[in-house]
Amino acid sequence: MDCIFCKIVAGDIPSTKVYEDDTVLAFRDINPQAPTHILVIPKEHIANGAADITADNAAVVGHIFEIIAKLAKEEGLSDFRVVTNNGEGAGQTVPHLHFHLLGGRTLGVEMG
Ligand code: AMP
Ligand code: ZN
User: Fold this and answer.
1) Cβ–Cβ < 8 Å for 105, 58
2) Please, which of 18, 41, 48, 64 could form a disulfide with 98 given CB 3.0 to 4.6 Å?
3) Percentage with pLDDT > 70 across the chain
4) Which residues does a 6 A CB cutoff place in the pocket of ligand 1?
5) Residue 112 confidence (pLDDT)
6) Dihedral sign computed on CA atoms, order 43, 18, 2, 86
7) Measuring from atom 3 of ligand 1, which residue has the nearest CA?
8) At a CB cut-off of 8 Å and minimum separation 6, what does 91 contact?
9) Strands ordered across the beta sheet of 36-42
10) What is the pLDDT of residue 95?
């Protein structure tokens, strides 16, 4: 499958991993928008994004948020933002469900 994040999961594309278990991988964004910018993804290719979360695949999303809380603590972040972009018009460039963990600077009040 021609999916950059599946290739990262498979180890075919290198990444700076910060967490990995059977179902979830977290790695540093290659183009960081904040001092901490980590992508947390299900290893399973959930295409395309948040609009494709269903009763069958939602469990991993809860687990992802558990990992986000752990990573935020490890990064020393009390203030942080979690973002998922769904669709090109919302800024999505990789059609494999992922959550951005951003922090380490003052984040604008504007969301969009
Ligand atoms: P989005 O635009 O919400 O789909 O997020 C995709 C993110 O993946 C962007 O922030 C990119 O900088 C990031 N990205 C793309 N390729 C890589 C890569 N090889 N390693 C790490 N992050 C990447
Ligand atoms: Zn994928």
Assistant:
1) no
2) 41
3) 100
4) 4, 13, 15, 27, 29-31, 39, 85, 91-94
5) 78
6) positive
7) 92
8) 85
9) 17-20, 24-28, 36-42, 99-103, 80-83
10) 98
